[in-house]
Amino acid sequence: MTEKKISVYRFMSAGCNGCDVQILECLVPRYKLGELGVEVVFTPEEANVLAVTGGINVKGKEELKKAYEKLKPPKLVVAIGNCAITKEIFDKGYPMVGPPDQIVPVNFYVPGCPPRPQAIVSAIAKALGVTLEEKEDYWGTPEGFRGKHEFDSEKCIGCGACAQVCSSDAIEILENGEKRIIKVDYGHCSFCGFCQDECPTQAIKLTREYHLLTDNRKITHVTNEVEMFKCNVCGTYYAPSRQIDWAVERITEKVSIYREYSVNLKKAMEICPNCRREIDNIRKAKKLLAQLSSKAQTRYN
Ligand code: SF4
Ligand code: SF4
């Protein structure tokens, strides 16, 4: 039993309430919050910790400020779940005024959609500075659980298909000349698993890791880098080298007639679309000029 006492007041704003259900789950005896010296209270005046779920909407903004002002020291604020970190799927909703940290200071973030009760319990324990039993069976994750992402950098071809299918806009494709960076912000993710399902090379997977507590909102991401290829004509970086190789392999594997042209195919793909278009236009212009000159010759003969 710890001497420390933490009184938690739950503040709910705009979200689906999935995180609130997980907070209630934390109160069952198996998590032993009472033994950690944690109690849930019903007014902010009685609390020293504010557990916020949901992004904050217009109505919630003033309420959140008031609740924070009434907190007792040490006035800890824990943002629980991705809506309370980035607004997640409610990001572009017109009444949303921001995640909690744009309104009051936030000390800890517990990413997840929703986070597992175990992640919330261990976050609270960390806030208390208490070490929990590592071996208890409730820390295990169920089969098929979708947690933090992991890249297989040997397999990723940098195609960006994962970003295309992500309904939460959690994946960004960034380019800095010679590198393409695939950045997954799991603080913005709904853990649907579409990126994993649609990746053509099985290079991204959602692991079973769910203890994602952080005190730094800026580090809730995983990234992978791939080398870009320079166009053989104009020298512009235009596509990942591995994606070009992968495409040529796929074409020749699927369409047997192309196998004997694989070297030419690879050479053609090493020219960027803009240069290919120009080459094509030059060919067309030459053809047109040839047609015009033969017409002119016929007329004068
Ligand atoms: S993880 Fe898969 S889908 Fe995403 S860029 Fe890499 S290869 Fe493409
Ligand atoms: S699991 Fe993948 S596709 Fe689904 S929201 Fe998260 S990053 Fe996007």
Task: Summarize the helices and strands and which ones pair or pack.
Layout: E1 6-12, H1 18-26, E2 38-41, E3 49-53, E4 56-57, H2 58-70, E5 76-80, H3 83-86, E6 96-98, E7 108-110, H4 117-128, E8 149-151, H5 161-165, E9 171-175, E10 179-185, H6 194-198, E11 204-206, E12 221-230, E13 237-240, H7 241-254, H8 262-269, H9 273-300
Bound molecules: iron/sulfur cluster (2 copies).
Structural summary, described in words:
It is a single chain. The chain contains 9 helices and 13 strands. By secondary structure, it is α/β, with parallel strands linked by helices. The model has no long low-confidence stretch (mean pLDDT about 90). About 35% of the residues are buried. It has 2 domains: about 5-140, 3-Layer(aba) Sandwich (Rossmann fold), CATH 3.40.50.12280; about 150-270, Alpha-Beta Plaits (2-Layer Sandwich). The protein is elongated and about 105 Å long. The protein binds iron/sulfur cluster (2 copies). One iron/sulfur cluster binds near residues 165, 184, 190, 192 and 193.
